[in-house]
Design a protein that fits this description.
By secondary structure, the protein is an alpha+beta fold. Helices cover 36% and strands 27% of the residues. The protein has two domains: 3-135 and 310-337; 142-289, Aminopeptidase (3-Layer(aba) Sandwich). The protein has eleven helices and 13 strands. Strands 1, 2, 3, 4, 5, 6, 7, 8, 9, 10, 11, 12 and 13 form a 13-stranded mixed sheet that branches. Strand 9 and strand 10 form a beta hairpin. Helix 2 packs antiparallel against helix 8. The longest helix is centred in the middle third of the chain and has 17 residues, at 154-170. The chain is globular.
């Protein structure tokens, strides 16, 4: 079995085999869907991306980017919280290094969701180095919402009652809107961006806007997913003011919350948390048995909502154990000398 590595532009029709592998290996994970990947490449690709294909795409596909001399990494714009590694067995990966040429010393397999990767956490391998990137969380939509909510911490339930009481005292008219059509989602992304741009992300220059690449990515990708009923935006309005918004995609098993924003001038009313509460109420009825995946480095506050957690890891594959030990030694020396 062999790998072929070529620029994505020269790879031909890669989307069909990519989605077939994603379905076979990871039950069609929405973050690994070719529609998500193609939109990322169109909006954030540099042209240097390489597609590694094993046996014509039947046994493996990996999207790589050269990042420094002798090292490749998985293609991972910041909009992608877990990188796809469409390979059934980790044993197939050393030959991928060989296919990249003699100068390839390592591959950084970034943001590996430990539930959706061939890289077993417990596997001892001298050519692999692992580091923890994040602790992500999910919420299982099992049973009914009242039971789920009753099992949350008293502090979380008390806080939400407090926010609802504040809203009632302020006399706001509350509206929850779900937008899920291809024609309407780009406008929902634009409204999302207008709220985000008024906050700290706008000041930092990282906000989604209707005129930047992030806005173009989310508008394009969500519209594509909406054509198969797999995308929506939830908006929480107070009177005629958009207070919070969340962008979601899904498959038959999971619902991924991609982005969240709220009006920072309304922070005392916690509209982002109220919106999450309302979304879960709706999805417990609309999507029983699924999981809501937040794909975040969960804080203590966020973990109060969780029913399960797991790790997102960075894993480096080295050509051999000697290179792995040498690089490990160099990293330790760099860390030791950093304060000086």
């Amino acid at each position: 079995m062999s790998w072929r590595v070529a620029p994505v532009a020269a790879a031909g029709d890669w989307e069909g085999p990519w989605d077939a592998l994603n379905a076979a290996l990871y039950r069609a994970h929405p973050l690994f869907d070719s529609r998500f990947t193609a939109a990322l490449l169109a909006c954030f690709g540099t042209g240097d991306e390489r597609l590694a294909v094993r046996d014509g795409g039947t046994n493996g596909m990996v999207l790589l980017l050269p990042c420094r001399r002798g090292v490749y990494r998985t293609f991972l714009p910041s909009q992608l919280q877990a990188a796809p590694l469409l390979v059934a067995e980790a044993a197939a990966l050393p030959s991928l290094l060989g296919a990249l040429g003699r100068g390839a010393l390592a591959i950084d397999l970034l943001c590996q969701d430990t539930a959706y990767t061939p890289l077993d956490e417990g596997r001892a391998d001298p050519t692999l180095a692992r580091s923890r990137h994040a602790l992500t969380m999910n919420i299982a939509l099992d049973g009914d919402f009242d039971r789920y909510w009753g099992e949350r911490s008293a502090n979380l339930r008390r806080n939400l009652r407090h926010y609802h009481n504040r809203l009632a005292a302020a006399g706001h008219e509350e509206r929850l809107i779900r937008i899920d059509t291809p024609d309407e989602l780009p406008a929902a992304v634009a409204r999302y961006g207008a709220v985000e741009a008024r906050g700290w992300k706008g000041k930092a220059g990282t906000a989604v806007t209707a005129s930047n690449r992030q806005g173009a990515f989310y508008a394009r990708m969500l519209a594509e997913f909406a054509r198969t009923g797999q995308a929506c935006a939830y908006e929480y309005w107070l009177d005629d003011r958009l207070a919070a918004s969340r962008l979601l995609i899904s498959n038959d098993e999971i619902i991924v919350i991609l982005k969240t924003t709220y009006d920072e001038e309304l922070a005392a009313l916690a509209p982002g948390r109220v919106l999450l509460h309302r979304i879960l109420q709706h999805e417990f009825t609309a999507s029983p048995g699924k999981r809501v995946e937040l794909y975040t480095n969960a804080t203590a506050d966020q973990l109060r909502w969780a029913t399960a957690t797991r790790a997102i890891d960075h894993v480096t594959l080295y050509r051999n154990a000697l290179i792995a030990r040498g690089h490990g030694w160099w990293q330790r020396q760099r860390e030791r000398l950093a304060p000086a």
